[in-house]
Write a structure and sequence with these properties.
Order of helices and strands: HEHHEHEHEEHEHEHEEHHHHHEEEHEEEH
Structural class: alpha/beta
Strand content: 5-15%
Shape: globular
Largest sheet: 8 strands, mixed
CATH architecture of the largest domain: 3-Layer(aba) Sandwich
CATH class of the largest domain: Alpha Beta
CATH topology of the largest domain: Aspartate Aminotransferase, domain 2
Helix content: 25-40%
Length: about 425
């Protein structure tokens, strides 16, 4: 008698995370065959030769003898004080160490915050395109993501009027990703103020993913939302993984701001859920104060001559030179989100294109539909490789798109009619 297979959670069928999905699995198979791939699917600085700043490494090394025990479920007191002080300098209202939560990366804190907030059937307004962890975590905590559109024609910025039309009696929160992953959009103050007004009017929590807050290009300026929110409850997420190039340390934080009376129950729920997982990675927490109070190591990388700036310029130049690509230049973060246009776009399927790039050109991309958009003509690349490598990648992309355009542009001659008998 055969044993029936183990059943899994049904809602997992609704979750997508192609960034590390089927294409990434196929890439590993090709690498095992000896293929050398250029993998642009993950914003992982260490994989492209970046290192966490030396003063952060030294801070951990100097305290390694203090890292054996568990710490408080919300994080090391000195680390939380440093995060709170950083937010006080930004103008975050009611920022204090008691309202700071340190986690194993922002990813864990996103899950904890949604688990603390949602009851079955509750809704969360999420941008489209989104970083898919947000919609996945909403689903796996028995909520329902409701997507508000960020149109490319509007610089991938959302329309506050549309956001408000999506608010229902079950809506609990609005998610903002600023600067944005995958598009690189940077939200201006006036837009953020209008979204804050919607949250205030409808009693919603603002969930603000600001992990790329220091990665900005040209004249872009980051506007933290918490100072604009005032007494509106807000959770601001940050960490060491991107700005400080320390993804593997798994150090993130969430800062609860707004009127403490309105968020007391939510704060207790966050604390309980943090206690259930005991505590976050301790060694990495000793780098937080050094990161927030030490020298600025990210801005030089984002200015002309800096590696990230020049990588971004290589992508912009390649898209401008191509007959088959369009691009809204990213104002921040570590990604570009090009679109395929013209003859190459006819019948275009982003997943099939990504698979073709992997199989024939040794390049791993992420299909645009992985970010919960209804269209199928975009893809995401990270800006972390050297500029010359990105130029080579886009030469390969253009080669594949040129073949598509040529095939789509061919005119099939009509069959001649048979002469009458």
């Amino acid at each position: 008698m055969s044993t029936p297979p183990l059943k899994t959670r049904e809602r997992l069928s609704e979750v997508r995370y192609e960034i590390r999905g089927e294409l990434a699995k196929r890439a590993r198979e090709l690498e095992m065959q000896g293929r050398r791939l250029i993998k642009l699917n993950i914003g992982n600085p260490g994989a492209f030769g970046f290192r966490a700043p030396e003063h952060l490494q030294r801070a951990i090394a100097d305290h390694i003898h203090d890292t054996d025990p568990y710490t408080h479920q919300q994080g090391l007191p000195a680390a939380r004080e440093a995060i709170a002080a950083h937010h006080v300098r930004r103008g975050t209202p009611h920022a204090s160490a008691e309202r700071v939560f340190v986690g194993n990366g922002v990813s864990e804190l996103i899950d904890i915050s949604l688990r603390a907030l949602l009851n079955p059937g509750d809704e969360v307004l999420v941008p489209s395109p989104d970083y898919p962890l947000w919609s996945a975590a909403t689903i796996l905590n028995d909520g329902r993501p409701v997507f508000y559109r960020c149109h490319e024609g509007n610089g991938f910025l959302p329309d506050p009027d549309e956001i408000e039309t999506l608010v229902s009696q079950r809506t609990r929160a609005i998610v903002l990703i600023n600067p944005n992953n995958p598009t690189g959009a940077n939200y201006p103050r006036a837009l953020l103020e209008r979204i804050v007004a919607i949250a205030a009017k409808h009693g919603l929590l603002l969930l603000c993913d600001e992990i790329y807050d220091g990665i900005l290009y040209d004249d872009a300026k980051f506007e933290p939302i918490a100072p604009l929110a005032g007494d509106v409850p807000c959770v601001s997420f940050g960490g060491l993984s991107k700005v400080h190039r320390a993804c593997g340390w798994r150090v993130g934080w969430a800062v609860l701001s707004g009127d403490p009376k309105r968020s007391t129950e939510f704060r207790h729920a966050m604390d309980l859920l943090g206690a259930l997982r005991l505590c976050a990675n301790v060694p990495g927490q000793f780098a937080i104060e050094a990161a927030l109070d030490g020298i600025d190591t990210i801005t030089p990388l984002c200015q002309p001559g800096g590696r990230l700036y020049e990588a971004r310029r290589a992508v912009i130049d390649a898209c401008e030179a191509s007959e088959h690509l369009s691009l809204t230049a990213p104002a921040g973060a570590l990604y570009a989100f090009p679109g395929v246009t013209g003859e190459a776009a006819k019948g275009f399927d982003d997943h099939a294109f990504a698979l073709e790039m992997l199989e024939t050109e040794d390049v791993l991309l992420v299909p645009g539909n992985s970010f919960n958009v209804p269209y199928r003509n975009h893809f995401r690349v990270t800006l972390l490789p050297q500029p010359e490598q990105l130029r080579e990648v886009f030469a390969r992309i253009d080669r594949v798109l040129a073949r598509r355009a040529e095939a789509n542009g061919k005119v099939v001659p009509l069959k001649k009619a048979r002469p009458a008998a």
